[in-house]
From TrEMBL, chain A:
The keyword Disulfide bond does not apply. It is found in: Membrane. Belongs to the CDC50/LEM3 family. The lineage of its organism: Eukaryota, Sar, Alveolata, Ciliophora, Intramacronucleata. Its main location: membrane. The chain crosses the membrane at residues 21-46, 278-300. Keywords: Membrane, Transmembrane, Transmembrane helix. GO terms for cellular component: endoplasmic reticulum; Golgi apparatus; plasma membrane. InterPro entries: CDC50/LEM3_fam. This is Cell cycle control protein.
TrEMBL record, chain B:
Residues 832-1083 form the P-type ATPase C-terminal domain. It comes from Paramecium pentaurelia. The keyword Nucleotide-binding applies. The chain crosses the membrane at residues 38-60, 66-84, 262-287, 317-339, 863-884, 896-916, 952-973, 985-1006, 1013-1035, 1055-1073. This is Phospholipid-transporting ATPase. Residues 102-230 form the P-type ATPase A domain. It catalyses: ATP + H2O + phospholipidSide 1 = ADP + phosphate + phospholipidSide 2. One of its GO terms (cellular component) is plasma membrane. It comes from the Eukaryota. The active site is at D383. Keywords: ATP-binding, Magnesium, Membrane, Metal-binding, Nucleotide-binding, Translocase, Transmembrane, Transmembrane helix. Its EC number is 7.6.2.1.
Length: 314, 1141
């Protein structure tokens, strides 16, 4: 091209033309295949160590089923190693609905006042206190999740406003074994970046807000789920539990008929890859095995056909 | 056509005010109207209207699933870029206009010439132009500094010709003005309305009740430059935008390429699909509003208020538009902008190519939009003179009075002195007098050389000069020549110029020594022969001349017949009187021009033959090589020439258009019936030939296989020198590869050539029946030569093929076409300036087609396919997600991520591929020799069409389903770490987004054929690293919705493991498909690569220890095309020897 053999020449004209060959494919597939299968096995092992108990439709376990009442049931549990995570799970609740996801004001949640126009823009259709649920209108829920009765004007802008806040899940739980209470740690259940940064209470929170935005259950609720069936972390049991019949006591506030679904309790331990999920490990093993099989097929074909593999003879 | 004419009153500005000023304005805007006008112009484009509609929909919170800025910002971006470009362009135009308009001219006013600016010049003004200055407006010459009223002109601005042209003042006016004053000049000029014919002018100047016809010879066009003349004074005829140079500036015709046409259909199909998807989704929305209760109460009371006014129907309609916005990127509107950018960059890169330039002559691309057409050319139409040949004429031979002489013979003859008195030499003298009198060559006194628009004439005058006949000067009415030391003067009376219809030129002069009127005429032999006076010639002389003519044309020489005639003084004056009156008539009525021509030809009868000249026009470098490659690539080559059949056929042999295997069919019948019969017969014989060839080849093929096996057995025992191994290996390979492509040299191959002559072409163009037969034959003919065709016929033939065969054609030389390639040459560059590409040598066509054309075709095809792939991969996840969010048209991606997917993150890599990827190393000698074979592949194997597109579309669908469903399944519960915390919607979305982005990268990386350091930069820092960490972390600080969330995801092992799983799956899928295709359905490219590898291995093995590959590269590859070219040159050398004998 040119006589100049400078840096630019080298930069532009030093070329590689990699042509994928059968040999390199066999090698590559074998290596990746082995890695994938190994990963799959590791994940399976980890997965098998995770214990998970689901109590379906726990609200149905009391009879008669009444809401805004305390209720309890007994559930047999196996040995579990700490930490054990206490989740509530909702089925068929669309936290990812367009209108729902949009309906909140990040400004307001981060502790700033918003104008009426902003409230209308971001929080529609829940703008004023009067748009909230009846139980939310004259209550202040503290950071420790304790409702305190308060007076508020119905025509003030609701704080926090919006559909997500309004539909706040407010069941509470307690766990005991033969009368001995088992502590449920409810701190540290939200993401570190949320509390105090994205969610901040205003100075006179008690009189203007119906819930403290730094309430961790609230923060957990506000991180909207991606799929219609989802779990939310409610508490942490920081001691190993033994086999036995445990009493679950709960305040049955949240009515699943509202979303035509169900509410469940899940107790689960966790691993480096989170909760129990067989799919990930199976997927790795399947993909890995397929790769190894392809590598083997190519190898057999190559040995059989000798050197002329890949040349179509007529 | 406007019939009216323009009437200009000399020197009276007040009566010429209706004509426009001399200012030119190419700019579109001014300060005030820039914004409204430019924006309005932008919205004339469909794409921008689409953008606007999207933006409007998006800014309605009710409808929009996204923040308004994500729609408005692309619109603003596109508009800003376009406006900025417009502004720059217009600013440049303004400055250009000002520079032109403010040049200084000299205006005659009150007896002196005053300085004024160009823009102040008006029609009817009298202006002076000095030597080396540019003419400010179209002028009619009134006076020049030369006493004979001559001036010289360089017209390179107008038509690219560098040689000087002579223009004249009207003799009478010149005389009058030498003594009188310009201010006394009163009268008017009547002429055509402004038009774009730069070689035509007709007018009538009326001064003091006397009329003078004005022709093109008296006109100086704006933009040309005065040379070798101190000054010229002229009358302004056309100003400003009426000037011929501006009128003749053609507008670039928009050409759409096959990819664009296919793209349009695909876009429409996808738009329909998209509309279907939107309708389906909005139906589901309505259903989901409340599946049980259609009275209008919403199902989700935690979402819709109890008193929701909208109801299911309105919600569905809103949902339709929301979904429309979400699925918008199924037809990526940014594709249009990206394609334009891509092609602009391709152009720049092509123009950089040093190998497309030679002798510092540039390679230029004037139409940036049609590069991919170069990779699919099926027909090449080429001119002969100046395109295949170098247009560098050399006087070789001549035939005087029936006796043939070579140039050397003549030198011998003229050795003796005092030839003027030698009667025997009289015939030679007349022969050369004709050469040096009857021509349009001028002498450039500064450079001391001959210049003229016709290289033939220059070559002849030069040859005469070498034999002692010197042309000195031509003035307005005399011609000065010098024969040996004797100065002779001829009075110039008139000239009938050469046109492609007349094919002859005549000049009438008066010998001042003998007072004799002479007519010299030279032209094409068939025209001249009819006009010879048969009685006065000896039959033998004519026969001998004919023999020489045949011989010359067989050798591919250009012939001209020279004749003269003595005119009778009285008869001539009669004739001249009539001629003048017809000339006057023509000035008023241009239709009468034919009458003038008829009258001219009255004199061109009963001519005496002086002799025949034969000029050699050398072939350009590498022409046979290029033509052979074109044939190998399956491209049909047509040569369109004005030459005789024999000459044309011979040139055809020389250029390898016709070789030993070619069966030539000649069509030179002259009536409709027999031409039709001829074509039918040709059709039948082609069929017969094809059958026979097929049969013999079957037999031969079997023998060949046996031979190959035999050879292979022998070969294994041979371990001789590298060179021989080399040779055999390649031979073996070419046998093997060509055997499968039906190209084998050892097989009988039959190719057909059609040679059609001028009169037959006429019928071909005018009879439907003949056309039909013709069109049946030509797809089978590798070569077609049209001889004796006029430029007009050439254009019509090209049109005929293009229209009826629906093939992509390329015309090199001139003529309108899909792709026009101009060649800078001696015969004027006007054609080059109107072409799509131009370069200076025919041989560059090889690289233009086989390298750049093919590259750009596959690159652009890949670019478009890939663009759709990545958008389908990206957009369809929105569609799947709708099934998990109650069809609420929630966007799966956050605004910022959605917006930047196409415009930022995945933008660089495909553009890089589209400009720089190279599938074969064309520097390699072996691969170079195989490029024509590779080129032919794209004819059958469509890179961009419904099938290829469907393949990409389906893989896009598969990948998007894989990404979405696998990710969704893994994140069913979004507990991803030991902390037990639960993540939300955006974590799911980001995981899919990362997978999609990396799939997009991994696909393009595994499809890249070439890696240089630039590739690593384009794919590394500019793509992958730009996405992560730069974009990811930067956006993490801006976005309110997911602000700082990235830290949660990035600290999570599962997040990466999921992406690795998905990428691994896509990668094996891709790799297996690639390998499978390569092994089981190898393309020619794959085969060539394989052969190259094997070749390298053989070379490596047979290298003696200690020697390096470097040494090897110095060895010649035995199959290089040069060998064949040498053969051709040998052929021409042999001919030269024959000639000498």
């Amino acid at each position: 091209m040119s006589d100049s053999k400078g840096f630019l020449h080298w930069l532009f004209f030093k070329k590689w033309h990699p042509v994928p060959s059968v040999g390199s494919t066999i090698a590559l597939f074998s290596i990746i295949g082995v890695i994938f299968v190994a990963l799959g096995i590791v994940i399976t092992v980890i997965n098998n160590h995770i214990q998970e108990v689901t109590i379906y439709k726990y609200d149905q376990k009391c009879s008669p089923v009444e809401y805004n009442k305390k209720c309890s049931f007994i559930q047999k549990l196996d040995n579990m190693k700490a930490p054990i995570y206490f989740y509530y799970e909702l089925e068929n609740f669309y936290q990812n609905h367009r209108r729902y996801v949009k309906s909140k004001s990040s400004t307001q949640l981060s502790g700033e006042e918003i104008s009426l126009s902003d409230a209308e823009k971001y929080c529609d259709p829940i703008i004023y206190n009067k748009d909230l649920e009846v139980w939310q209108q004259d209550v202040y829920i503290t950071e420790q999740n304790i409702p305190v009765p308060t007076e508020r004007k119905p025509d003030d802008i609701a704080s926090p406003c919006g559909l997500v806040a309004k539909s706040f899940f407010n069941d509470t739980y307690a766990l005991s074994l033969s009368g001995k209470n088992i502590a449920l740690n409810q701190t540290g259940i939200s993401w570190p970046n949320d509390k105090g940064k994205k969610y901040k209470r205003v100075p006179n929170s008690e009189s203007t807000q119906w819930i403290d935005p730094e309430n961790e259950h609230f923060i957990v609720w506000m991180r909207t789920a991606g799929l219609p069936t989802f779990r939310k972390l409610w508490g942490r049991i920081e001691q190993d539990i033994e086999e036995g019949d445990y009493t679950f006591e709960f305040q049955n506030n949240y009515n699943p008929q509202m979303f035509a679904g169900a509410k469940n309790i899940v107790l689960s331990t966790s691993g480096p890859f989170g909760g129990k999920n067989l799919f990930l490990s199976i997927a790795f093993i399947v993909v890995g095995v397929i790769q190894l099989l392809i590598a083997l097929a190519f190898l057999i074909k190559k040995i059989r056909a000798g050197n002329s593999f890949g040349q179509k003879n007529e | 056509m406007q019939q009216e004419s323009r009437k200009i009153i000399i020197n009276r500005r007040d009566q010429n005010i209706l004509f426009p000023s001399n200012a030119i304005k190419t700019s579109k805007y001014n300060m005030l109207n820039f914004f409204p006008k430019a924006i309005l112009l932008q919205f004339m484009r469909i794409a921008n209207i689409y953008f606007l509609v999207t933006a409007v929909l998006q800014s309605m919170p009710l409808i929009s699933p996204l923040a308004p800025f994500s729609a408005i910002s692309p619109l603003v971006f596109v508009l800003a870029v376009s406006l900025f470009r417009e502004m720059l362009e217009d600013y440049r135009k303004h400055r250009n206009d000002d520079m032109i308009n403010e040049q200084v001219a000299l205006l005659y006013n009150n007896y002196v010439f005053q300085k004024i600016q160009w823009k102040e010049i008006r029609v009817g003004d009298i202006v002076q132009v000095l030597e080396d200055f540019t003419i400010p407006a179209d002028l009619c010459i009134l006076r020049t500094s030369d006493e004979n009223g001559q001036c010289f002109l360089e017209t390179s601005n107008l038509d690219g010709e560098r040689n000087l042209k002579t223009k004249y003042a009207i003799t009478e006016i010149q005389e009058q003005m030498i003594h009188g004053k310009f201010s006394d000049l009163t009268g008017e000029l009547q002429c055509d309305k402004p038009n774009n014919r730069i070689h035509k002018f007709q007018g009538m100047l009326q001064v003091d009740l006397k009329q003078y016809p004005i022709s093109n010879n008296n006109i100086l066009l704006r933009g040309t430059t005065i040379k070798n003349t101190k000054w010229v004074v002229g009358l302004v005829v056309y100003t400003g935008h009426d000037c011929k140079i501006i009128k003749s500036q053609g507008k670039m015709r928009y050409k759409s390429t096959h990819i664009e046409r296919a793209l349009n259909i695909i876009v429409i199909v996808i738009l329909i699909l998209q509309a279907g998807a939107c309708i389906a989704l909005s139906f589901f929305t309505a259903y989901n509003y409340n599946p049980l209760n259609f009275e209008g109460k919403p199902q989700f009371i935690y979402i819709y208020p109890d008193n929701d006014k909208n109801g299911p129907v309105v919600t569905a309609v809103i949902s339709y538009f929301s979904n429309f916005l979400l699925l918008n990127s199924m037809v990526p509107i940014s594709l249009i902008i990206s394609l334009e950018t891509l092609k602009y960059l391709q152009t720049t890169w092509m123009e950089f190519d040093e190998q497309m330039q030679s002798e510092n002559q540039p390679f230029r691309v004037l139409n940036t939009m049609i590069h991919e057409e170069l990779g699919k050319i099926e027909y090449v139409f080429t001119d002969k003179t100046g395109t295949l040949t170098s247009n560098n004429m050399e006087f070789r031979q001549c035939c005087i009075k029936g006796i043939a002489y070579s140039n050397e013979d003549l030198l011998e003859i003229f050795k003796c002195d005092n030839i003027m008195n030698d009667l025997e030499l009289d015939k030679y003298i007349n022969f050369f007098l004709c050469i040096i009198i009857c021509h349009n060559v001028i002498v450039d006194e500064k450079l001391n050389e001959f210049q003229g628009s016709s290289p033939d004439e220059v070559a002849l005058v030069k040859a005469a000069f070498n034999h002692g006949f010197k042309f000195l000067k031509r003035t307005n009415n005399s011609i000065f020549i010098k024969v040996r030391e004797q100065l002779l003067v001829y009075e110039y009376i008139c000239e009938f110029e050469f046109t492609s219809d007349r094919k002859r030129m005549s000049m009438i002069v008066k010998d001042m020594q003998t007072e004799q009127l002479l007519l010299f005429c030279k032209g094409a032999d068939n025209i001249i022969w009819r006009r010879l006076d048969m009685r006065k010639h000896q039959e033998q002389e004519l026969q001998m001349s004919q023999v020489s003519l045949k011989k010359y044309s067989k050798e591919g020489l250009r012939t001209l017949c020279l004749t003269y005639k003595q005119l009778d003084e009285i008869q001539f004056q009669d004739w001249q009187k009539q001629y003048r009156s017809i000339q006057n008539e023509v000035a008023l009525d241009p239709e009468a021009i034919n009458k003038l021509k008829e009258h001219e030809s009255i004199l061109e009868h009963e001519l005496m033959l002086l002799g025949i000249t034969a000029l050699e026009d050398k072939l350009q470098e590498d022409v046979p090589e290029v033509i052979k490659s074109l044939h190998d690539a399956g491209i049909k080559v047509w040569m369109l020439t004005g030459d005789k059949m024999e000459t044309a056929e011979n040139i055809g042999h020389l250029c390898h258009l016709i070789d030993q295997s070619t069966k030539c069919f000649r069509v030179n019948q002259e009536d409709q019936e027999s031409i039709l019969m001829r074509f039918k017969k040709i059709g039948r014989s082609i069929q017969t030939y094809e059958k026979i060839t097929k049969k013999t080849n079957k037999v031969k093929k079997n023998q060949l296989l046996q031979q190959q096996l035999q050879w292979l057995r022998e070969q294994s025992s041979i371990n001789s020198q590298i060179r021989s191994v080399h040779k055999m290996k390649i031979n073996q390979m070419s046998v093997k590869s060509e055997g499968s492509d039906n190209h084998s040299q050892k097989e009988i191959k039959r190719t057909f050539a059609l040679i059609v002559e001028g009169d037959s072409i006429y019928y071909l163009l005018h009879s439907k029946q003949i056309q039909e037969e013709f069109l049946k034959i030509i797809p089978k003919c590798r070569t077609v030569i049209c001889c004796r065709s006029t430029p007009n016929q050439k254009a019509e033939i090209v049109g005929l093929v293009k229209k009826n065969l629906k093939s992509i054609t390329l015309a090199i030389g001139d003529g309108g076409n899909d792709v026009r390639v101009g060649i800078l040459g001696k015969e004027g560059n006007q054609a080059a300036m109107n072409s799509d590409y131009f370069f200076c040598q025919f041989k560059h066509l090889w690289r233009l087609l086989f390298v750049h054309g093919r590259w750009n075709l596959y690159r652009t095809s890949y670019f478009v396919n890939y663009f759709f792939f990545k958008n389908i991969l990206f957009t369809f996840q929105q569609f799947y997600f709708a099934f998990f969010n109650a069809f609420s048209s929630q966007s799966f991606y956050e605004d910022g991520y959605l917006l930047n997917f196409n415009t930022l993150i995945t933008a660089v890599a495909p553009v890089y591929y589209g400009v720089f990827d190279q599938d074969l190393d064309v520097q390699d000698t072996y691969i170079k020799s195989q490029l024509p074979r590779v080129y032919s592949e794209f004819k059958y194997h469509k890179l961009f069409g419904r099938r290829a597109f469907a393949k990409w579309y389906v893989s896009g669908l598969l990948c998007s389903a894989l990404v979405f469903f696998v990710t969704k399944q893994i994140y069913l519960i979004q507990v991803n770490s030991e902390s037990g915390r639960v993540d939300g919607l955006w974590q799911l979305s980001i995981s899919c987004y990362w997978s999609s982005v990396f799939i997009v990268f991994i696909v393009i990386i595994s499809d890249s054929n070439q890696f240089t350091w630039i590739t690593f930069i384009a794919y590394g820092p500019l793509s992958i690293l730009a996405f992560f960490p730069v974009f990811t972390l930067a956006w993490n600080e801006f976005q309110s919705e997911t602000k700082h969330y990235a830290y949660d995801w990035l600290g999570n092992a599962k997040f990466f493991i999921v992406i690795i799983l998905i990428l691994g799956t896509v990668f094996i899928f891709k790799r297996v498909v690639n390998i499978w295709q390569q092994l089981e359905y190898p393309t020619i490219i794959d085969k060539v690569r394989k052969e190259k590898q094997e070749l390298d291995q053989v070379v490596e093995q047979s290298l003696p220890p200690g020697s390096s590959r470097q040494e090897l590269s110095e060895l010649e590859f035995p199959i290089s095309i040069e060998n064949q070219v040498q053969g051709v040159y040998n052929l021409s050398h042999n001919m030269g020897q024959q000639r000498d004998m």
